[in-house]
Design a protein that fits this description.
The chain is of the alpha+beta class and 409 residues long. The protein is built from 14 helices and 14 strands. The chain folds into two domains: 125 residues, Phosphorylase Kinase, domain 1 (2-Layer Sandwich); 212 residues, Transferase(Phosphotransferase) domain 1 (Transferase(Phosphotransferase), domain 1), CATH 1.10.510. The strands form five sheets. It has a five-stranded antiparallel beta sheet. A three-stranded antiparallel beta sheet has the order 8-10-11. The chain has a two-stranded antiparallel ribbon with strand order 1-2. The longest helix has 20 residues. GO terms for molecular function: ATP binding; protein serine/threonine kinase activity. Belongs to the protein kinase superfamily. Keywords: ATP-binding, Kinase, Nucleotide-binding, Serine/threonine-protein kinase, Transferase. This is Protein kinase domain-containing protein.
């Protein structure tokens, strides 16, 4: 399903979201009324579906994405002729409780307009079928690749939605734990220059969990590039999502990863050090306000990290709306300087794919999937410091891959 850790660690046993409760506050977590009700409904939907119901109701069309044990296919309901995206998961490699949990959390957050919709969930002897809202515009990640960067006005528009979504989720007691551009889809097909014309949808709730105010979680869950340092230490709360939003903002503005490395272990060392660069040419056209809000999000100490309300009121949004500093990395000189410096100085350039940790797929239009690791490495005892000149140490160029995996539910 999602990016769920599956091994042991110094903090105990990592378990899939929705699995057996472990760690601090587990007893209260699984007595949360709304989540229990949503889980009960999802389980009832699976229990009540008839054999071969999916095959009788839906006509499968083109393949949208493929993972190690799952795939996403565009399908048409043969009764109302509406198009959907169906996530098909092999039962041999998917726990029923994980399907129930993800559907339950997604439905809990359906009150927010930018949460992807689950139409229905079905099963047969071999597979589970999550019938989802079809997002024709693909991943936000793909648009970053195509555009190389977003202007500050574009980035601000995206961040407003993500901040609103995260605020809604946290109000409902839900922490996402895997916010990243691969899990943000465009609902409609639009050209790159009109990317803001399409509503966006947040997907992949396989790693989401209930987290009450003041509660601490201990499962090391997430994707290396986006995971918060305190998650690596196995002691965190909902503010970990804000760090992930900061990583997304860095990528939107620069087209680069703030924390790079050739493998998950190297990436998590960079995350644990918390060192990122704003000194390369790619940042010359970015406003001081943008850099300030970024620093407020990528604050190593969670208790000092800006709150969602503080971020929503940050002056950067007014600056971005007015067009100040809106060129971001767009000016030709900056792009030329980045190419001349190479990725080791400019930051880890974003290309298709990253070291995600899950084994499922998004609604990307691709024919092959990427295989991924299934555990986040432990937090390192020591992490390298940034280079003295402010450039990004050990920055990597990510190899192109066919489809980024991540649950579209």
């Amino acid at each position: 399903m999602g990016n769920v850790c599956g091994g042991t660690s110094s903090g105990g046993v990592d378990a899939p979201a929705g699995g057996a409760p472990t760690g601090k506050g587990a007893a209260g977590k699984y007595s949360h009324g709304p989540l229990l009700a949503a889980r009960a409904k999802a389980a009832k939907d699976l229990d009540s579906c008839k054999k071969d119901e999916f095959a009788k109701k839906y006509d499968m069309k083109k393949l949208l994405g493929r993972g190690e044990y799952s795939k996403v296919v565009e399908c048409i309901n043969m009764v109302d002729h509406k198009r959907y995206a169906v996530k098909i998961l092999e039962k041999a490699n998917t726990e029923r409780d994980a399907v129930v949990h993800e559907v339950a959390v997604t439905r809990m957050l359906a009150g927010f307009s930018h949460t992807v919709r689950v139409h229905e969930v079905l099963e047969d002897r071999l597979c589970y079928y999550l019938v989802l809202e079809l997002c024709k515009g693909g991943e936000l990640f793909d648009r970053i690749l195509a555009k190389k960067h977003y202007t500050e006005a574009e980035a601000a528009a995206v961040m407003r939605v993500l901040l609103d979504f995260t605020e809604h989720a946290h109000r409902e007691g839900i922490i996402h734990r895997d916010l990243k551009p691969h899990n943000i889809l465009l609902l409609n097909e639009v050209p790159d220059e009109r990317v803001l014309d399409s509503p966006i949808r947040i997907i992949d709730f396989g790693t989401s969990d209930y987290c009450a105010d003041g509660e601490r979680l201990t499962h090391r869950v997430g994707t290396p590039h986006y995971i918060a340092p305190e998650v690596l230490k196995e002691d965190y709360d909902k503010t970990a999502d804000i760090w992930s939003l900061g990583v997304i903002l860095y990528i939107l503005l620069s087209g680069s990863m703030p924390f790079g490395g050739p493998n998950p272990e190297a990436i998590t060392k960079m995350v644990a050090a918390g060192k990122y660069s704003l000194e390369s040419a790619v940042w010359k056209g970015v406003s001081a306000e943008a850099k300030d809000i970024l620093a407020a999000m990528l604050q190593m100490e969670p208790e000092k990290r800006a709150t969602l309300q503080q971020l929503k009121n940050h002056p950067w949004f007014a600056v971005a709306a007015a067009g100040a500093g809106g060129a971001g990395a767009a000016n030709g000189k900056a792009d030329a300087d980045v190419k001349a410096q190479g990725p080791a100085q400019a930051g880890a350039k974003v290309v298709k794919g990253d070291s995600a940790l899950d084994g499922s797929v998004t609604q990307s239009d691709a024919s092959e999937g990427e295989e991924t690791a299934r555990s986040v490495p432990p937090a390192p005892a020591a992490a390298p410091a940034a280079a003295a000149n402010g450039s990004h140490p050990s920055a990597e160029v990510l190899e192109p891959q066919a489809v980024q995996v991540g649950v579209s539910a």
